[in-house]
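Onboarding guide, step 5: your first structure request.
Type a short instruction followed by the sequence, for example:

Predict the 3D structure of this protein.
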Amino acid sequence: MDWYDFEARNYDASLGRWMNLDPLAEKYYDWSPYNYVKNSSTTMVDPDGMDVILFIWLTSEGSYGHAGIAVSNYKKDKDGNYEKDEDGNQIEDGTYTYYDLYPDEPVDRLSAWGSQDPDFKKGSGRQGQIRTAEELEFGVQSDLQIRPADGILLTETDFASDQAVKERLEAKTKDGTRFDSRKYNCSNFCREAYEGILYSQSNAPPPIFEGDQNYSQLLPTMFGKEKVEVSGRKFTLATPHQLFKDVKKFQTTYIITDLGKAVNKSSSDSFKGN
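The system replies with structure tokens like these:
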């Protein structure tokens, strides 16, 4: 048979038809299980469904922007063990865990440059709870934002990578890391996800999380970071815009919603007046 093998499904080009149901059709109840990327093949692709998703809110004058991250969840049996398919692979359950970081108190132009207590749950009342793909794609992902994310990137992963990402993010929520606009903000926090992916794919020893706020790094030092100017002073910060640009170039990453030219605007503009 002259079918094209897309791993999860087979495609018959002579008929222009998928010959199998989408194995993750349960993520999108409103769509036919035989559709391809919601009939948007010019702007979207269909990876295998195991993924980490980055959400970016634009930075502009008067707005610092924001970054959030979602990681795939997997099916478990009644004993809490991960279920596997006939090939021995863990099975996605069609949901994600969403993470982001906000300071415990609102940041204004005067307080933005000091360390503050973190609140890893303030950004989303549903953080750590089950979120469907459609909630993440069409809803307001973070409860302290008034609109859905401006940009969305999907990085194709595997079970081991997803577990490494969760371990890293959840460790950060427990180790007392303080929110700091310069040293550890929402973009630094989301950057941890891509460190987790690299660690899961490398031969490096597992990182030690206890009491270590500066975990070992495999990413380039400037990944997700840019130089910004505030009141004549120059800083190197992790920013939503630069994180989007660098993750966009990250291995197996696909664009769900592009920021377009707006991503090239300097984050320094958001600090005007400081």
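Each response can be followed by summary notes, for example: Confidence is low (pLDDT under 50) at residues 40-45.
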